[in-house]
Fold each of these.
Amino acid sequence: MPLPLEGIRILDLTRALAGPFCTMILGDLGAQVIKAEPTQGGDMSRSWGPYHDGIGVFYLSINRNKQSLAVNFRNPRGLKLLHQLARDVDVVVENFKPGTTKTIGLDYDTLVKDAPQLIYTSITGFGTDGPYGNWPGYDQIAQGMSGMMSITGQADGLPTRLGVPLADLVSGIWSALGTITGLHQRTNTGRGQKVETSLLAGVVGMLCVQGQRYLSLGEVPQRIGNEHPVIYPYGAFEAADGMVNIAAATQSQWQNLCRLLNLEDLIEQSEFVDNEARSTHRERLRKIFNSRLNSRNAIDWTTMLMENGIPAGPVFDLQQLFEDPQVEATGLVELVHHPQLGQIKQLSNPLRLESIGPKTVRSPPPLLGQHTNGILNELGLTSNDIVELQEDGIIFQDAVNI
């Protein structure tokens, strides 16, 4: 069965994280992603440590299933190549500072004149309108301004960023979704369109019930640590060897949990009779639960509770996660051969489609310029043209693929 996006060609003008994460998702789904990089140094994330035998793991984490075209963006001849490609592909994805693409002739309004079928996906920091429309975007800035940091962390602690670059990642996911939507609509209309989101919008769109609390009730949610803001008991508790998450979201689950923990006397106590009462008396209930849960390990509690209808799970560090048998059984880590590093492990795409199968990492993150010659051949350049561009420093081809 063909891959879902097989035959779709994407010119990836992005760097750092939000854009590359978007195009990696599209590459996972079968699109040909041409990652255009400066000849000197390539994508900035290549230089961000820590390093796996000289290659930045940041770059390795977001660039699988792509081809690398190394071209001098600052040279008019290099820009001409990008202009040709942009008019030849199905999708252009960019995350430059607003206004940059217009100055180099790679903006949507310029390209669509000659390529009305083009899907043009743009990721900015704050959108292109409003008082911040010209500001550059950075993940932690967006996390802070979105309100997400204000509701993350311990109640008596400081606002806290998520342990991964949330704004970059979610804006990349939204952008991939928008790109696929644009491609689908093009099959009916024959025309492309511009797809836009921002780091700020991406996180605001994830505020969910916390955002709706303010919009509906005027409530400003506060940090509540590892507990659910409106349901209890639903959070992290203390087992003998670490934390265990327990989620008793319904009244029947609450009653079942009490019976399983031999705490039946709590069921009828007025302080815990319903969710509102339990939420009001969280601190007391937490101490009772911790005292009981401290008698067994987190995975033992998890097994017992899950097998009796109570959602639960240990709080793993990453070593525990990647050594867990469920991760191996579900193929969340894949092996792929890298031309410099040999066999490496990569995170799998979490989607499972029949047309893709269990293996989603078909090619490793490319070396800088690994596919330059092949991409330009596809564009119609002759061998002599390519040699001349190489000699003049307009393009770079890594020797591994010659």
Amino acid sequence: MTNTLNRRTLLKAGSTAVIAAPFIGVGKARAAEFNYKFANNLTIDHPVNVRMAAAIKRISEESDGRVEISVFPSSQLGSDTDTLNQLRAGAVEFFTLSGLILATLVPLASINGIGFAFPNKGKVWDAMDGELGAHVREAISKSGLIAMDKIFDNGFRQITTSTRPINGPEDLKGLKIRVPPSPLWTSMFNALGTAPVSINWNEVYTSLQTGVADAQENALSTIDIFRIYEVQKYVSMTNHMWDGFWFLANERAWDALPEDLQKIVAQHVNEAAVLQRADMQALNVSLRADLQSKGMEFNDPDPAPIRELLRANGFYDEWKANYGEEAWSILEKSTGKLI
């Protein structure tokens, strides 16, 4: 397998992995010393699951079959909040989750999603592979969870709507936009004058289809894979926040693994995350044209007036106070001054 996968290869690899490797499919794994479940809210052909399929195979091989991991994709074990509760209880051993949603348990985990903080991916990786990521992982560890060192990429988020494109702050006023159940999202979109509606991801398509919400925001890959183009018309390339997936382990299940097995699992999960980042970079290059061919209309608003609205409405001041001086100072080492 090459280090970068194109979109067709990703889809093929995902479907092949399910058929060819029984321990990657849904259900009970074959007998092993440690049979662990890995849940996520992504389709089996998403780059995270494709790279994790390869990682799981290597973990099984290098552990001589002592560690077998079954994947439960597409929210099969419940919503994000349900599965997070299962992870904490030990019913699920591994879970990938956006830090912005994890923030309902670990408030600091949402700091990477501060609106218009990162100008590019280079700054993101400087922060998340460096001091900021370490600071967040330490906070996560205090909740009975272990986060792997490398975070998977979900990309910069864009706003899609069924009603109108977003060209500036005036187009956001009163917009019924779906946001995840996270205080940061609600706070940001309230500061922008929208009417945010908190909806778990497994209910989003129906909510957009029925008009419970008129808009949502996500990375282009998510918009494509989850067929959001069927229920939304406009894509406004706001790049308003960056989001990633932490690979989380139940602390008791992690501690049950001998040190040699911990090293094998951590090595291959972290390698999968780095490879997935490159996959996402390549994938996003082609997605705009692909989504346009499916009927979506794109525009590129100037982010400066939207960011200024956040500043004027006290968004940055509020979250600096929430995270504290230390965390905010670490963030600004990568982003530059936000206030």
Amino acid sequence: MPKTENLLAIDIGSSHVRAVMAQSVVGEDALRVLGAVSMPSEGMRRGSVVDPDAVAKTVEKAVEHAERMAGSPARVVGLSVSGTDIFCQKAFGVVAVGRSDGEVAEGDVERVIEEVESRVMLPANREVLHVIPKSYRLDDQTNIKDPIGMRGVRLEAEAFVIGTSMRQMKGLARISEAVGLTPTLHAVEPILAAEAVLNPKQKELGVVLIDIGGSTTSVIVYEEGELVHMSVLPVGGMHITNDIAIGLRTSIETAEEVKLKYGTATPSEVGKREEVDLASLDPHETESVSRYHVAEIIEARMDEIFRLVNEELRKSEREGMLPAGAVLCGGGSLLPGAVDLAKATLRLPSHIGYPKPLGGILDRVDGPDFASAVGLALLLEERSHSGKGGIGRFNVGGNAKVPEWVEHSGKKAKEWLRKFLPME
């Protein structure tokens, strides 16, 4: 690996495209941020690509901006995968240990993970992106985290299989082709946000990360250091804006400004006589509205989001039982009062999560809205440091094998990059 390597992480969300150009420098612990940009996105609906050409134009502008800030092009590119098409389900696999002396080797672990992927029953229109082992079993020994070096005959694995729809991946491939990018990594946003925001202690104690995006809210739960549950809810910050627009009978643009400048999720902190002069935000408006009424609208929608999150915790049997509490990230987490409402609804300690400290122009990427982009940059760095030509080991919340494909100029051509080994 060269002494320095430019990594480009592109997070394509429902409301914004965020690009982070970072430099991996040998001898430095933290990535060095060289450029970062956030631009409003078009052509997305609930995190899914509906108009690849429109998204490609935004991605192209974001990439050009990030590379101009960095002063050099990227060598390694990664794309986030978002949307309600993301799925997560458990699967099992079993293989015979290959060596005559019964010692489990890396090849055995690789084979059992491939067996897990082959056994999972999925519709033909779904694509597997991650296979994350939960635990291994070797003969009668259970709950093994790393079986390499142990001796036995029968190796079993329980894992989470995570992926998305073929439609979403084809949309991302068209965007990459239009912009002239060749991504070497695709990863789902909930895992990326967790990589950037959560620390090992939180994952060990038990924590839920709630990433409130433009049109979706992703939920990912960890306990005892392992992934427990993951889902994507079809509601986010833009639904709050829509509610305000309907409630105030104003435009979406004005409603968004009202939300950002005067919005809060806690009406009790707003005086009932406080007014918002819409004319100061939009010359076509002539009325003033109650700020307390705006807060009530916001509270109702945010409460719905957290109640849906609580339902996911109930499904995973973790409702009110996560000592490390709830960590909020994404643009929606910045809404005043969101943390207090999360505490009340989820009955858990709650706070806003910020990405891990990086070097360079840190002020560009230190907000919770850049969590997924930073997480993708961190995974790109770890992959680069594997020293295996881009196929190596990296942690995505446990031991992981992450196959991903890249479409080139041919519309139907696919190149599968497999054989990710689990973390030791």
